[in-house]
Model the fold of this input.
Amino acid sequence: MRIIDRDKHNKLAGLALIGAVLSSAAWAQGPSNVSQAAAGPSFVPQTVPIKGGSFYMGCGSDPVCEADEQPQHRVSIDDFEIGVHEVTFKQWDACVDDGGCSHSPEDNGWGRGNRPVINVSWQDAQEYLRWLNRKSGKNYRLPTEAEWEYAARAGSTTQYSFGDLISTSQANLQGEQTRPVKSYAANAWGLYDMHGNVWEVLQDCWHENYNGAPDDGSAWTSGDCSLRVVRSGGWNDDPDKLRSANRYGDGDDVRDALTGFRVALGGKSGAYAQAPVNAVEPEMVYIPQGQFEMGCQGGSECEEDERPVHQVRVPAFEIARYEVTFDEWDACIADGGCVHRPDDQGWGRGRQPVVDVSWNDAQEYIAWLNRKTGKNYRLPSEAEWEYAARAGTATSYSVGNQISTSQAAFQGDSPQPVGSYAPNPWGLYDMHGNVWEVLEDCWHADYQGAPSDGSAWLSGDCSQRVVRSGAWNDDPDKLRSANRYGDGDNVRDGLTGLRLARSLGGAKRSVAAIEPELVYIPGGVFDMGCSDGAECEDDELPVHKVRVADFEMGRYEVTFDEWDACVADGGCNHRADDRGWGRGRQPVVDVSWNDAQQYIAWLNSKTGKNYRLPTEAEWEYAARAGSSGKYSFGNDISTSRANYQGASPRPVGSFVPNPWGLYDMHGNVWEVLQDCWHDNYQGAPKDGSAWTGDGDCSKRVVRSGGWNDDPDKLRSANRYGDGDDVRDGLTGLRLVRELR
Done:
């Protein structure tokens, strides 16, 4: 363990006064995959998109391995972005000049400009990031330790990203001072100085080994958080300190000439970084007005406080798709809006539902969120909550009169990350179990005199507030839609969190509520068409290389919920038939290519953006998600992975997404695309554009396969042509948006 590295600090003391500036090596050209996030003012760091994957983190059995680098363990990483190089003095000084950073670090006489900033602590880095996020409208953060090592390795398993040996021609080590960023060649993923130059502070708290470390790429924020992980090795270090697996713990307030940092975006510890609205806003679901029977309608399972059953009319409103997460709450703390830093009980932060917060704490969070967004979020009323939890059902749970641990988090050891189980029919996650959710209403021992208009009941004992949902450690009866409980408004525990709601002032939806959730798809080159031999059909040939530009794609197929908003607003003439399968989060069917154009025109007029149907090349590129097999996850498929050979469509997101975070790219419903139909790929575009110049444009390409199809129709390469005016129960759509 090397919590205090005496060699490091002794070397530093001897070199602190060296002022001679070394002549810089010629700078290498920047990587071609620098993110568009880099566009804009010079103070905004350039980032490189890193495709998610899994790798072995840590050091194995090599003699050079140290105890804190073990045990080696497999970690899965989401897509994220990381700084192409360390933050520079030029970028830091912009923060100081703008009043965002209170500390002006010394450069030790080595120069500022494009030198990596030094003499900054972990705490200083947080101040810089808060300023950067205010200026850029993004959600920059420090990398997690897992993300850093994954990016440093760049697909390698050797001691360094380029082999088991390193020299002073490849990195800044055993030297006298820092060098300007980009003075050495980049690693295989276009990142500079991942070995040497300066140590880089990371988000994670220090642990002496990897026992109990997260395996999902998130930051490990339990442990000794007065010490933070630093990586990379510095300009004065020996080669072993620059190994990809090497790690060190340093005080979060330590400033020295060896340490700086680089930024990250997205991933497990920044899930909202690429959201099309403010990064701190929750994803909301429109709940239509309606009337329901509130309370327990069963027999012996009913409790006195769940009676009498009474009719309640609920106006249309919006409710969050997920419980508030630690990721969201920590943004409030970082911005100074929330005083209380809740304890994650050792379960992790990120996309875990926030716990250890009271009703009073929730009010502070909501006040901050409303200041940041200019909107009026609030806690749900008890009537709204039960109406949304039931989602049109009258049974004990939205899934029926029984519930199992495959459907919700209960009788367990800890909460699960939000969205770990299938949503209810209205697209809401964790309305049964995971954590109790505090509501606006004051506590009453029964429903005598309760409001019938869906509003919060604000008389009674307001030192106690209603909580609903049941929690990760509860028995099934506590998870019933009707179950309720009263808890003190200042109680903080590991069982209770919150979810937000927003009034609409009428039945119309906000622009944010009708926009699709988009996934950033990095550009690239792929082989389009079928290379599976005997299974290939003539219209899937010849295989040809296509270059696709960056774009954004809908995470889900367009739903009835979204289509019905267009009908209600007068933008769509055709009210699609749901065939008795339900509306809400079901993928819309019974719509043609022509109908889709009307929907898109309406959506663009409402949002001021330019949504469209995917091109066929974009669709296959995104469906493959970097794979070359029949399906994005290999050459075999099962009904546990996709909806096919079934009786009806399933709500969007009912199966696991592909590696790029897209749901239902295999099965559920066929998806209409922009391209005209051609019988094969002879003469097809090679630039990812829609093929509309010739062919039969009375027919359009459809992809994905449907809920009633055999597996071969779900292959990434499979394609079909359908009339542009055809409406049936098999076909829907998904949207994309170009990045300009």
